[in-house]
Amino acid sequence: MTDAAHLSPRRALITGASLGIGEAFARRLAADGWDLILVARDAGRLDAIAAELTGRYGHRIETISADLSTDDGCAAVERRLVADPPVDMLVNNAGISLNTPFVRSTVEDEARLLRLNVLAVLRLTHAALRPMIERGVGTVINVSSVAGFGVPMPGSTYSASKAWVTNFSESIGLSVAPLGVRVMALCPGYTRTGYHERAGIDMTGTPRWLWLRAADVVDEGLRDLRKGKLVSVPSWKYKLAVAGLRHAPRRLLRSVARDTRGRVGRGDD
Ligand SMILES: NC(=O)c1ccc[n+]([C@@H]2O[C@H](COP(=O)([O-])OP(=O)(O)OC[C@H]3O[C@@H](n4cnc5c(N)ncnc54)[C@H](OP(=O)(O)O)[C@@H]3O)[C@@H](O)[C@H]2O)c1
Predict the structure, then answer these.
(1) What is the pLDDT of residues 187-198, one digit of tens each?
(2) Does ligand 1 lie within 6 Å of residue 142's CB atom?
(3) 95 alpha carbon to ligand 1 midpoint, in Å?
(4) Which three-class secondary structure state does DSSP give residue 24?
(5) Does the Cβ of 96 fall within 6 Å of ligand 1?
(6) Longest dimension (CA), the chain
(7) C-alpha dist (Å) from residue 35 to 60, 61, 88
(8) How far is the CA of 218 from the centre of ligand 1 (A)?
(9) Which of 3.40.50.720, 3.50.50.60, 2.120.10.30, 3.30.420.10 is the CATH number of 3-263?
């Protein structure tokens, strides 16, 4: 299957499409001519984005209000992924971080994070792949994080969840590529979206040059998809950081992590 077939506009389902990186995906894909299915919990915000994009581009835009940390929410989106008209691209973007050290967090909050960041990604990828494989074309982009590159971090469940997303996507991507389907992990660094504020994470000390724009993350992710990459790390500064992380001695990474013990929860991305 050609690159053009994978990226020629048809229908994309985007989770977490009401804000941040997911909204940037919706805006970019709508501008590129895609019909969209937008998923998040806030139905009002989804409807407002759908109305704006339909008005501007005239595409068909469906919305699904669903909490993907719940069984019912995942099931509603799974039903749409196997229905007609078919979904050609799935963007698993919805994800959360917690601003609490593991020992002070509740099992319920940690499990909710895993249900959204891991279980929903697994379920929706599984539901999307079968019809894509039957048609011999389709794309899944799973939004992960540079935090997933094996760094011991204060927000341990978050970085572990993203390590899973990256490894899972790369592994599944390899196995389905011969069947005409692509799966790619998109691993941004700090991206200005309001995500940290919503998680109550104080980012005031983070240097401005480290921040990425959501639209640039999406543009670079789609460029990497076109190149056939299995893992995309937007921006040269985070490519360098990831290369360093991959080669740095484990002992050094652990000592950096120990030094950040007081800043629990901060810097999860
Ligand atoms: N921002 C960063 O610095 C950064 C860096 C690396 C990776 N990431 C990853 O990028 C992805 C998007 O992050 P973002 O910064 O764009 O986040 P964001 O601005 O906080 O947006 C999160 C989106 O997910 C939706 N969402 C949250 N909980 C949900 C749930 N239980 N069910 C369904 N939808 C839910 C939100 O809408 P509702 O609240 O209406 O549901 C919203 O549309 C996440 O996976 C995140 O881990 C972000």
Answers:
(1) 999 999 988 888
(2) no
(3) 4
(4) helix
(5) yes
(6) 55
(7) 5, 6, 10
(8) 14
(9) 3.40.50.720
